[in-house]
Structure formats: C-alpha cells, structure tokens
Sequence to fold (324 residues):
Amino acid sequence: MSTLSTKVTDNELAAGIKDEFGVVYSVDGKRLLKCENDKIGQYKIKDGTKVICDWAFEWCEALQQIVIPNSITSIGKSAFYCCKSLQQIIIPHYVTHIDSNPFAYCKRINVKSESKQFVVQDKMLIDTIERRLITYFGHKQSVLIPNIVTLIGDSAFLNCNSLRKVVFSDSLTNIEEYAFRDCESLQQVSFSNSLISIGESAFSHCISLQQIVIPNSVTKISDAVFNLCGSLQQIIISDSVMSIGNLAFSYCCSLQQITIPDSVTRIGETAFISCDSIKHIIIPEGSAEKFIKMLPANLLDKVYCIKKAYTDEQIAEKRKDLPF
Fold:
C-alpha cells in the first residue's frame, strides 16, 4: 500500500475541492491540501481524511481550536506554522508520520498524543521509532534532552526565546537544520562526543551564545550554522573537522578567536564575512601556506601558527573551564 504524499502541487490545489470554511481537499477527500481562510477560528477536519499536507494551515493566526479525526495517519511539514492562537493539538491514535515541526511559532500550543509511536515528555514531542525530537513547546530556561532522542529535528526549538541552556545526552548523534534558530536567549551549549552532524543554520541568530567547542566526532561545519551569533567570542574546532561551510560564522561581530586544525581542507569563501572583531586565527605549525589559500585576505594578518593544534585532551580540559 503506497503512502499518501504530504506535498502539494499547484495542479492538485487548483483541482481540489473547497468546503464552506475555505479548506481545500484532494478530489478523493483523503488529503487536506490547504486552508485558504486565514480568518478561520475553529475547524473540524472531515472524517476519512488521511493526510494533513505540508503548510496546510500556515499563518492561520486566528485559529484557536482544531479537531483531528482518528482517520489521520500523517501530518506534514509546518502544517500549523504560525498558528499563534492555536491552544491544543491531540495527535490521534493511528498517526504514523509527523514531518518537520508542524507547530513552529505556535506560542500558545499544548500538544497531547494518543499514539504509541509519538509521546510527549517534558513538553517535547518525540517519535519513539525514529528517536527524533519533533518539537519543544515549553517555556523553560533549561532543557535536558532525554536519552531516547538521537536526532533533534528540523526547527524543533525554532524561536524558543525563553531557552538559555541545553544539555545534550550522550545518545544524541544529529542536530538537523534550523533546530535552534532564533533562540535569542540561548547562552550555553555543550556538545557530547556522540554528535556526528550539525545541520545548516542550526544555531543561526542565537545572539546570546558566547563560546562553542566542536567535538571530535563532527567532520563538517555546515553552511550558516552559527551565523548572526552576535555574542560569540571563541570557537574551538576539533581535529576531526574537514570543512567549514559558507556563512558558517558570518556576522559574528564579537568573535575574537578561532582555532582551526590541520584536518580542515575547505573553508567557504563567506565563512567569516563581517567578523570584524577577530584578533587571532590559530593554525598548526607548518600549515600556513595551505590556510593562506583558504582564508580571505583581510584575515591573513590575524593568523598565528602554533606547534600543534589542540589535542582531544586539551579540548576536554578547555571544556572543564566553560561556565556550564
């Protein structure tokens, strides 16, 4: 049996059937394609509907109440994006798929689940099969990621402005794109050595973040991952990292020091654009010729060679000095 897609084409939307509330369904009635009434205050999805498609209720800022029938099996990406008045969602029993954070910017929402696959723990909605943290809808200043989670999903903590500290478990391996974007109060992040990847723009515009240590399990610093982190002053990159993406640390206007290991073979042209406060770029002895080719000309007078880049043991010691 094929899975019904959460994606919607223009042709499907044009051919869809609109009900009296301005909500468009697929011709067969199995997919809710789009709500075209941004004034809608409450709504009951039709029985027999299987899928709530991507971005279906985006910007329905007046929507306060929605009833999801037990026939629903899939909820698409950002399905309720910016439904700022929405107060509660109950995940029905037969739901087997929830895409990237369906509830981003839903500031008042409370999520409950009747599904065994999707559980709510400390205001976190977690897919227990994928071991993926889908969304956090709480307002705490400090959050501990539970051991069941190995992946923090796309936009899971997007714009959680109360969040100041995140403690990652040793089971966490992946942080997807935009996971903590716009968490403007986030100050303290400590990665474990189980972490393998940090997605694009994962910590973009975390304007209170001050120091980052990239663990020795990460091989790539993604595009724009820490861009616009205006308070970031120091970055330590482990010997495992091979590439630094475009805009990775762009507009980090307080950044003063970065340590780059010899393992790095690629630095994006815009990785350090508008980092006007940099005083020291520390590289290993004997690697100057390589880094001169990779770094922009305006930063070459900031380069200092040291006998050896930080070892894993030294990185571990530096972590002990961090204030968290």
User: Anything to note?
Assistant: The mean pLDDT is 92. Helices lie at 10-15, 288-294, 312-321. The two ends are 50 Å apart (CA to CA).
